[in-house]
Design goal:
With about 350 residues, the chain is α/β, with parallel strands linked by helices. The protein has 14 helices and twelve strands. The chain folds into two domains: about 160 residues, Glycogen Phosphorylase B (Rossmann fold, 3-Layer(aba) Sandwich); about 150 residues, Rossmann fold (3-Layer(aba) Sandwich), CATH 3.40.50.
Length: about 350
């Protein structure tokens, strides 16, 4: 483990739309599209509220055209061509990446749109998947008058794909802790992974390391999976739990944790872990920070960028001896607890207001 120095049915593709209408002179309407529990959907709503901008919550992409057509009734104060800001991950906007691009291009024909791109394609996800998603993100960006991403790493990925980025606005770290609540009681020896559980979260690697500790005699060690399996990955999570238990350790899956329980749940874990296989910006990483936790993370371009932005907020590892990393932190978890870093929601709202103002200039 290394710690950096603490210094600063498929629809055929359509032709690209014509240039978006004139940029806005008023705050855009943010569309929070998707199930309320989805990280990107929730973040879209957070951004709008932080900036004091109008917000429309839409259940799914199939409902979007009707929701926009009904705006004169649902939000009568908006002018007819009010621009839109959409937070985009392709899976929310279509069953395929091309369908997602179709939906965004169609929306951009009627009014100017801005987008914040999430889950930016990168080679680590597989060559063919990356190629298909990159083509869709290129089309989406071409239809937008403003393109925002959440990290310099994402900007670099976009530049490599020929996508021009107008602004980088880092994800916020809202403080989950409340002064009128008791501090959570730390577990004796637990290792926690938070968020939707899937191979990208490297749950299997963490489970293998915990199982190795248990097999070596640490029978009190517990793997705590703080979330629910992502759709289609139930067997993957079950296998990880079984490996730990078979080695003599303990393992639990909590399912989705309510917002008002997050601070307690994340605060109880002895060692927080976020060993992403491929990540370009991470809400779950920031949620650990929001609970005053300093997680053990894989050394990558993105995590090094975040450590530079928030010095002392992460524990980086090259993964060469993950069981040893965990053992040392289980024995002395003090390095995993820190003050909540910035930026928070106030800074997030201010940053979006600034880029919207530049867009409308």
């Amino acid at each position: 483990m290394t710690t950096p120095p603490t210094t600063p049915p498929t629809t055929p593709p359509t032709a690209p739309p014509t240039a978006p209408p004139t940029a806005p002179t008023t705050l855009p309407l943010t569309i929070a599209l998707g199930p309320p529990g989805h990280g990107v959907t929730r973040f879209a709503a957070e951004c709008a509220r932080a900036a004091g901008a109008p917000l429309l919550e839409v259940a799914d992409v199939g409902s979007l055209p009707d929701a926009l057509a009904a705006l004169p009734t649902t939000l009568p104060t908006l002018r007819p061509a009010t621009p839109l800001h959409l937070h985009v991950t392709d899976s929310l906007f279509g069953a395929t990446p091309d369908q997602a691009a179709d939906a965004l291009e169609s929306t951009a024909r009627d009014r100017p749109i801005a987008v914040t791109l999430h889950d930016v394609p990168q080679p680590a996800e597989g060559a063919e998947r990356c190629r298909r998603r990159t083509r869709a993100y290129q089309r989406i960006a071409a239809a937008a008058g403003l393109v925002v991403v959440s990290s310099e790493h994402e900007r670099t990925l976009c530049q490599a794909a020929g996508i021009a980025v107008d602004a980088v606005i880092p994800l916020p770290v809202p403080d989950l802790r409340s002064p009128d609540r008791d501090e959570p009681t730390p577990d004796a020896r637990s290792v926690g992974v938070f968020g939707f559980l899937h191979p990208g979260k490297a749950v299997d690697l963490v489970a293998d390391a915990v199982a190795e500790l248990a097999a070596a005699g640490d029978r009190t060690v517990t793997l705590k999976l703080l979330g629910a399996p992502a759709e289609g990955h139930e067997d993957y999570v079950r296998d990880a739990v079984d490996r730990v238990r078979s080695a003599g350790g303990r393992a639990d899956v909590t399912g989705r944790i309510d917002d008002d329980e997050l601070a307690r749940a994340l605060g109880e874990v002895t060692v927080p872990v976020a060993l992403f296989r491929n990540v370009s910006a991470s809400g779950s990483l920031n949620t650990w920070a929001a609970a005053g936790r300093r997680p053990l993370v894989s050394d990558s371009d993105y995590t090094r960028e975040m450590e530079q932005r928030r010095p002392g907020s992460l524990l980086l590892t090259d993964g060469a001896d993950l069981p040893g990393d965990l053992r040392r932190l289980l024995d002395d978890p003090a390095p995993t607890r820190v003050d909540v870093p910035e930026p928070g929601l106030t800074e997030l709202g201010r940053a979006y207001l600034q880029v919207w103002e530049q867009w409308s200039a």
